[in-house]
Specification:
Length: about 260
Amino acid sequence: MSTLLEDLSAVDPNLDRTNVKTGPDSFNRDWEDLEGIEEWTDFSYENLIEMLGDVLAQPYQQHEIDPPAPVRCSTCYIINEPTVTAILLTWNHTIVDCALKLASKASTTMPAMSWTLGNYSALCGETVLPDWAGIHSDMAGLAPCSRIPGDNQSQHDTRRSKRDKFHKPLRQVMHYAKLFNTRYACVISDKELVCFRRTLSEFEGVPLAAGRPARVSQPSPTPSRRHDWLLHKPTTPSPRTDSSTPFRVMILPAQAQQRDEQR
C-alpha cells in the first residue's frame, strides 16, 4: 500500500538538457503589464499539508494508483516546449491526475478535478489557448472554464536571470487567468512548477472561491502535531518538492500601461 503523498513524491526521470534550443516566445502587446511580483507566503508546503494532510496520508492499494509507464530514453531529451509537454504527459500528468481523482473522492469539499491539456477548455472567440488547464472532470464536452490555466516553457526560457524572458510567459498566463475569470495560473518547465495568484484588487469579476463552502477553520500558522510526520519533505529527493516559491502577481493598471507606452 502507498499514500498519495508517497506517489506524488516519486523521483522524476533524469532529463538531458544539453541540446535545448532557444526560440521566440509567444507575445502580445495587449497582454497586461505587471506592476510587481511578491512572494505568495501562505502557499507553502506546511499549509498544504495542514489542509490536505488527511487526504494525502490515506493509504491505497497498489491497483488503485495508476503508475506511469517507464519513460523511454528518447523522451528524456529536452529540446523545446513540445518536448517538455511530452515528458509531462508521459510522467507527471499520470501521477498528478490520478492523485486528483483519488483526492476528490476522499474529500467531502474537493470537487472532481482533472489536470489536462488546455485545448479541453473552451473560450468563445479565442483561437489561442493555454497549454494546460485545471477543469471539472465530471463535465461532458469541453469545459467552459479552467481553474488554473498553465503555460509550458523550457528551463532555458524561465531562468530568472533573464527577467524579460520570464515576464513574457507570466504575462501570458495572467492573460489566460483573466479570460477564464480565475485568480490562479502556473508556468511549467522541465525543472519547476511556478504557481501564481493575481492580486484581489485587480481580479475581474466574482472570485471562484465565492461559490465554495466556507471552511470550518482556517489553517493555523503552526501546523497541527497530528501531521508532523508529513511536514518533513520526502526523504527521496524530487524536483517537485524544491520548486520555486509561488508568487502573488500585481497587474499594472491600464492607465499606467498607456503612460508607459507613450514614453
